């Protein structure tokens, strides 16, 4: 009794049989379906309707020609032989070969019987890693709050920001600009990284020293920004 080779495949994408050598004719039975094989070529049996989920019987066979045809083909007295390869998802899973004598022709010989158990499981979709919600940049608001708390600070309009020059530039390109008008009143403008003015204010002359000390303290406190 011929032994049966048992294999299994989980969610296979392709199952192929390749004939390396076959004399006289090579074929494969896939359950109840018959396929001829050509030397050197692969047959993708998973692209047919022959395979099913569960156990499938693959029978790799060699058939010899009738005696007269063997003589005409110059095969009289030569052994039959068959060598097959089985690939699952492109990977070699087994090589099967067998040979034997033949006198009368018209013989059928099994090289290998394979029970292939195909198991289909739903593939788990990985849970996407949630994209962290970016924290709002509170630096601008914090600096505005600090500027507003400078003694004597008076808010004003933004229209004179074009006359100002950078006094402090932080690492994230936030700028604190200053400007003196014609009467020597000190103005301050807070510019965000996109170049938008977010705050404008001024202080009286008597507050000038404390005003610039406060700006230096802001630079020190936000030096890592």
Summary tags:
225 residues; mainly beta; 5-stranded mixed β-sheet; 3 helices; 13% helix; 43% strand; rod-shaped
Quick description:
With about 220 residues, the protein is mainly beta. Helix content is about 15%, strand content about 45%. The chain contains three helices and 14 strands.
What is the typical, i.e. mean, pLDDT? 90
What is the SS-derived class?
mainly beta
- The percent range for helix content is 10-25%
Q: What's the β-strand tally?
A: 14
* CA-based shape: rod-shaped
| Main beta sheet strand tally, sense and closure | 5 strands, mixed
The number of helical segments is 3
Structural description of this entry:
The protein is mainly β and 225 residues long. It folds into two domains: 116 residues, no CATH class; 83 residues, no CATH class. 13% of the residues lie in helices and 43% in strands. It is built from three helices and 14 strands. The chain has a five-stranded mixed sheet with strand order 1-9-6-3-4, with no helix packed on it. A five-stranded antiparallel sheet has the order 10-14-13-12-11, covered by helices on one side. The protein is rod-shaped, with a radius of gyration of 43 Å.
């Amino acid at each position: 009794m011929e032994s049966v080779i048992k294999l299994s495949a989980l969610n296979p994408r392709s199952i192929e049989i390749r004939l390396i050598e076959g004399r006289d004719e090579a074929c494969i039975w896939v359950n109840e379906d018959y396929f001829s094989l050509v030397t050197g070529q692969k047959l993708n049996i998973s692209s047919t309707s022959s395979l099913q989920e569960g156990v499938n019987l693959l029978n790799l066979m060699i058939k010899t020609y009738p005696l007269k045809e063997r003589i005409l083909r110059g095969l009289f007295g030569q052994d039959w032989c068959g060598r097959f390869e089985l690939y699952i998802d492109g990977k070699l899973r087994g090589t099967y070969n067998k040979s034997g004598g033949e006198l009368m022709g018209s013989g059928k010989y099994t090289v290998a019987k394979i029970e292939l158990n195909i198991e289909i499981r739903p593939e788990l979709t990985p849970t996407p890693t949630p994209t962290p919600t970016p924290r709002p940049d509170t630096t601008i608001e914090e600096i505005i709050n600090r500027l507003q708390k400078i003694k004597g600070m008076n808010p004003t309009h933004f229209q004179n920001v074009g006359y100002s020059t950078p006094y402090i530039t932080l690492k994230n390109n936030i700028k604190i600009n200053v400007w003196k008008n014609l009467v020597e009143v000190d103005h301050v403008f807070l510019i965000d990284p996109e170049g938008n003015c977010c705050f404008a204010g001024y202080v009286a002359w008597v507050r000038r020293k404390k005003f610039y000390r406060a700006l230096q303290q802001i630079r020190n406190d936000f030096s890592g920004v």
